[in-house]
Structure formats: structure tokens, C-alpha cells
């Protein structure tokens, strides 16, 4: 079975505002103001620890101990407001439906913790569109290690050699290269068309283009 694997944050959905709000909740609890702004969207898509690291750097003091201490608070704050501002990118649902109608399996492989990812896709009403969801803590390793990607394909009944990844970061590109599969990087994510610098197999300007792209890249 042919399979298309999707990243979640920055690929299927713009989650940046809710991620930044969760990080800022930590800094407010510590007696500081909001240390992150909408201009930090790219950092948000690199995860909670990256946001905390940036915020503490702006305070002039950062250590992994401080980040470790605040990370559980960030996850709790994010869980409380996980879908306050998050929106699916235009055409995402239609593209996945077309792929499934053509016989593709569709899965999610994300570096968001599995529980949070499951909560989000259920609240967005799209969980039934994906055969499998693999999160950062589903397996002992996470992207760009190949194991989570392979598991997302194989648990859906697919074969890695007949799959592709749709993502938005260098982590996704590295994951695809490790798996030996094509990768399409979206240009509507945080980097825009600057993502072309990573030399993916394809750039995806709109989800409307994905079904035909998958037909071409996945044999």
C-alpha cells in the first residue's frame, strides 16, 4: 500500500499561536512578561524547549535546568489551550480525503507528545482521516530517527519504500533522507519559500497540489 506521512505542526496545522501562548504562560508565572512574540513562530515549530531557551536568553540567563523545570508547566498550559487559535491549513482535509480515495494510507508522524497530538487532531475533527499517529514519545526515539517514520508506515499496512513525507522543517527532510523516501516541504509554513534552501524533492505551495504530487513521487 502506498502511504503519505504528514508532520503535524507547521504542516497540517498552524499551531504557533497556542504554542507561544503556552511558553509565555511559563514566563508570566515566573514574574516576567511575555518573552515571545508572533515573530517567533519559527522557534515555536522547533518545540517547547526551543521556545523556553529563547525566552530565557532574552532574560540574560539560560540553563538546561531552568528549561527542564518549566517544561512540564509549558505542556500543561498548552494542553489547556491547545486549539484556541490553531487552524488547519487551507485544503488539508480535502487533500487527505482525495489521497485516501485513491487508495493511499495516510498517517501522522510528529515530534509533539503523542497524547497532545491525539487531543489536537481529535479537537480539529481529523483523527479519522489518519490510520496511525506516532508522537515524540510513542517510541524511544523521535524524528529525525527513522524508527518513528517507519512505524507510522508499517502500522498502517504500508511499505516504507512506497511512501513519502510531507513536512516543513529540516528535521522532516533529514527523516525522509534517513528513510530513503521522497519529501515535500510546504511553503505555507513558517519559512515560506525560503524552505527551498533545504533542496527537498518537491515544494508544496498548496494542499490542492498534493494528490498529483503523491502520484508522481510514490510508486
TrEMBL record:
It comes from the Bacteria. Keywords: Hydrolase. It catalyses: 2-phosphoglycolate + H2O = glycolate + phosphate. InterPro entries: HAD-like_hydrolase_sf, HAD-like_sf, HAD_2, HAD_sf, PGP-like_dom2. It holds the Pfam family HAD_2. Its EC number is 3.1.3.18. GO terms for molecular function: phosphoglycolate phosphatase activity. One of its GO terms (biological process) is DNA repair. This is phosphoglycolate phosphatase. One of its GO terms (cellular component) is cytosol. The keyword Hydrolase applies.
